[in-house]
Amino acid sequence: MVDTTESEKHAGSTLPEWETTAGFHGEDQNVKKYRPLHGVKTSALGILDRVMPPHRRYCGLQRRYACIIILATCLVSLALILGLAIGLSNRSSHHQSLPLGSQTYTGDLTYYGPGLGACGVTSSDTDDIVSVSHIIFDAVSIGSDPNTNPLCHHKIRAVRNGDSLDLTVVDRCVGCKASDIDVSLGAFKQLADPSLGRVEVTWAWLPPVPST
Questions:
Q1: What is the distance between the alpha carbons of residues 190 and 69, in angstroms, rounded to a whole number?
Q2: Is the alpha carbon torsion for 98, 102, 106, 107 positive or negative?
Q3: At 152, phi and psi to the nearest 5?
């Protein structure tokens, strides 16, 4: 008699040719998938070994710790450079000259508590806004609705002691003379000490210059 048990075991242990081939190709694809990454890692380590041999010590430290310190130093230096660049950029934005060829005005600079202005805009103490004199505001009015005044939303640049600030018109100042401007507390702080209350300032319209 034929030992059917042994034959079945033998048959069960032999995989079909297509399954064996598929398994082989699948493994080969995984190898190919990770091979480029392995090559890059090996290349990077080779360069590091040439620059900093692993058997040496650097300032009494193993290479691993020396690399960590170098990396940390580079990151701190980069942060300082970025901070300095941002600081210089902000500083230069507050030291701009008045537009060339523009008509300039010199008057009093004061501050007030803004709210809903004549231009229909609600502002706060932290906004860079300005209330221009009722004299020039009313002179260009085109109707009974102050929200449609041509000066609304135009910008001026105020300069004092080398500091400058661009401000957006949102209101009319009843107590201001023609060349005076009234600004938010936050804007005033950027040009003068609030304890002074009233200081002299020079300003001009920024393009497009409205007809006043």
A1: 41
A2: negative
A3: -60, 135
* 117-149 confidence digits (pLDDT tens): 999 999 999 999 999 999 999 999 988 899 999
- Encoded tokens for 121: 């805009």
Residue type, 128: D
pLDDT at 194: 96
DSSP 140: T
CB 195 within 8 A of CB 135: no
pTM of the model: 0.56
Token pair, residue 169, equals: 């018109």
Does the CA dihedral 70-72-74-80 come out positive or negative?
negative
Tokens of 41: 């890692």
Instruction: For residue 113, give the amino acid letter.
Output: G
CA distance 118 to 148: 9
12 vs 1: CA distance, rounded Å: 20
Structure tokens at 186: 């936050």
Q: Could you give the C-alpha distances from 120 to 76, 105, 142, in angstroms and in order?
A: 47, 26, 15
Per-residue exposure over 163-179, b if at least 16 CB sit within 10 Å of its own CB, e if not: ebbebbbbbbbeebeeb
β pairing state of 104-112 and 181-184: parallel
